[in-house]
Amino acid sequence: MEEAAAAAGVQLGTSKPQIATQAEMAEARIPIPYRDQCAHLLIPLNKCRVAEFYLPWKCEPERHSYEKCQYELVMERMLQMQKIREAQGGAKVKGGATIGVPLIPSTAKLA
């Protein structure tokens, strides 16, 4: 995968910085799979959830900002993968049509 990305001129990883430190995430008892570039938003969300007894209508602003951050990370990874596939020539059939569904929907707003 890394060789294909280097050949395509695509830098792997994300452009978002890691804001929360490992110590902060460990103190907030964030599970290891959730320690990503959005963990700084998950810490106050989990505190709010505990304070509000996990009521679904509470903590909506915190949840929205965390989910938006996660969505942006997914879209960034999908864009990287699409660039890698385009650089490799893509999957073509006899008629020149591509196989499958495009990774990024046309309605996505890519900054």
TrEMBL record:
Pfam families: NDUF_B7. InterPro entries: NDUB7. GO terms for cellular component: mitochondrial inner membrane; mitochondrial intermembrane space; respiratory chain complex I. It is a peripheral membrane protein. Keywords: Disulfide bond, Electron transport, Membrane, Mitochondrion, Mitochondrion inner membrane, Respiratory chain, Transport. Coiled coil: none annotated. PANTHER family: NADH DEHYDROGENASE [UBIQUINONE] 1 BETA SUBCOMPLEX SUBUNIT 7, NADH:UBIQUINONE OXIDOREDUCTASE B18-LIKE SUBUNIT. Belongs to the complex I NDUFB7 subunit family. Accessory subunit of the mitochondrial membrane respiratory chain NADH dehydrogenase (Complex I), that is believed not to be involved in catalysis. Complex I functions in the transfer of electrons from NADH to the respiratory chain. The immediate electron acceptor for the enzyme is believed to be ubiquinone. This is NADH dehydrogenase [ubiquinone] 1 beta subcomplex subunit 7. It comes from Brachypodium distachyon (Purple false brome). The lineage of its organism: Eukaryota, Viridiplantae, Streptophyta, Embryophyta, Tracheophyta.
